[in-house]
Design a protein that fits this description.
Layout: H1 3-10, E1 14-19, E2 24-27, H2 29-34, E3 38-45, E4 55-60, E5 90-96, E6 105-109, E7 116-123, E8 126-133, E9 136-141, E10 144-149, E11 155-160, E12 167-170, H3 182-186, E13 194-199, H4 214-224, E14 231-238, E15 241-252, E16 255-265, H5 266-288, H6 296-299, H7 306-317, E17 322-325, H8 332-342, E18 349-353, H9 362-367, H10 385-388, E19 393-397, H11 404-416, E20 418-420, E21 427-429, E22 433-438, H12 442-447, H13 453-459, E23 463-465, H14 475-491, E24 497-498, H15 500-508, H16 514-528, E25 533-534, H17 550-568, H18 573-580, H19 584-593
Parallel strand pairs: 17-22, 17-23, 18-19, 19-22, 24-25
Antiparallel strand pairs: 1-2, 1-16, 3-13, 4-5, 4-11, 5-6, 7-8, 8-9, 9-10, 11-12, 14-15, 15-16, 20-21
Helix pairs in contact: 7-8, 14-16, 17-18
The protein binds adenosine-5'-triphosphate (ATP).
Adenosine-5'-triphosphate binds near residues 330 and 332.
Length: about 600
Amino acid sequence: MSLLQSLLDAYSHAVLTLDRQGIITHINQRAKQRFGLFNRSPHPHGAGRLEVGDVVILADTAIGADDGGLTPEDLACIGIQERRLRTGDRIVAVGQYQTPGSRAVYKFLPSRDADRLQLQTTFRSRSITVTIENKSASVLVDGVPYTIDYFLSIGQMVILDGATLEVKFWEEKGYSARKESIRNLLQGAPYMAKETGYEICVEGYHFQDFFEGALFEAHLAQVLAGQAERYVDTAYEVNGYELIASILPVAGEEGPEGVIVKFRNVEDLWDAILERNNVIRSAEEKYRQGEEGALAPALGGGEGSASVRRYAYKLSQLDCNILITGESGTGKSFLARTICQLQPRKGPVVTVDCSTIAPTLFESEMFGYVGGAFTGANPKGKAGFFESADGGTIFLDEIGEIPLNIQAKLLHVIQNKEVCRVGSTQPIPVDVRILAATNRSLREEVAAGRFRQDLYYRLSGFSLELPPLRDCQEDVCFLINDLMEKIVEKYRAPRKQLSGEAFSRLMSYRWPGNIRELENVLERAVALSESDIIYPEHIHLESEPEGGTWKELLKREEARLLRQTLAQCGGSRSKAMKQLGMSKTVFYGKLKEHQIE
Ligand SMILES: Nc1ncnc2c1ncn2[C@@H]1O[C@H](COP(=O)(O)OP(=O)(O)OP(=O)(O)O)[C@@H](O)[C@H]1O
């Protein structure tokens, strides 16, 4: 063995080297194991191919993926002619190869319908169980397991000799590299013998004889042709494995003489991700211990917003009114809900979004009315939000939207702890804790004459200002954990982890839309990623620098600002128009220009 080969074998990553033509010149042990080119088979078998009468046991987690491009029609050779079967479905089946008259037994499901599918049957005294569970496909023949797990889809096939019913073949890792996919074998291709400790010699063969993966092959060709300098730590799918690979050129006098390819498999990456998550979790636990810790788990966040949270916890334990301010999406409603959960005060919690109430209805909605108070009123009268919240808490969201005349009445309620229904002068005592929130600066609203100063002072005695996420960037990693948990629960989605690069992108972004934007980006990433890992390409951030001319950049920025303002104003066009100080014609013209619905 050459010194180079010994060095490569001692290396912990999978490595292979190719010459300028793409011929494999070296491959280390780790790479052979990874791609199933070297193995210690727990169930050795000889070489062969499918013969008429053989029993084919099949478990395919997605027809057409990682099975050589199998189609539902290909299954006719084992007696399955099922018109409802589609590409992408999961199937478990037992059938006899090219044996007219023999009936296959099978079950199938659209892939998204369930994670588990099982078939139990007996074939001429052999007991067979075929199971698909998530991305693992396993076959039990008389209790002996034939199992492989992949990160992506997988096709498992076990073949019993038609005459002896002995296992003559089963799929082991690396089947794509060995060209032993289900479709190939069903079409009569041979499979290799697998002795204990067999090894396949790939040196001297072209790379494409053993490895498949469109992006990987394209990048490899670019580096070999000198069109790309190198690719470092890029995510690829090779032979059905998700891999992180670096393609590095071996420099020659006239361009690259070949390349070195270094693979880290996703399991390695997975370990690193879990390690990182554990570090974050233990930092979080350490941080969240302590007196004010009781609030922290419910509140989320990290060091950046720690002082606000500490204060919030203290206020939650007092029976005072609280004003919560902060940009849109910083978690004001979330904080108000949490305070309600933590406060000693029990009783009803009534949430009022002041931006959704028509000015003419404010008074009756807030303070109620007596029968016959106005046309169309309920003859029996109706309690307002304050009466409904008696003994508990009222959360007045977007309090900056309350009309001035109602502000005066609200002040009266706060000062006298009583309400008068519309149409009555009879005061009704109410005992209500008020939590209010706004993303406007009430101080500026007071200066502009839109908010009563006395009410402002009444409300702002105890105020909490939630910082924008960009000012407490270190909170992002804590929030990611909390939000991912929330998303998994909300959508019943499988648990996913962020790759290192995806994680760094989230950590370095400025989050103009605050926690809400982070939540939306994570939700989208979870939906987009098809595996258990979220890669950078699944992270879509609104305001990342994009290329283009000055005019194009300005146009994009204008569209972004319009969207952002509309979102901040809860979709209200009139409010957005006011906030941006635009005339109706200009504003609607811009919406049309940018095709904003
Ligand atoms: N600390 C937190 N941990 C987990 N999720 C949070 C946290 N704070 C906020 N969120 C989530 O972020 C999203 C935005 O929060 P919320 O609606 O409370 O913001 P807001 O400041 O009231 O926004 P707006 O002013 O636009 O009404 C919500 O889905 C909320 O559940």
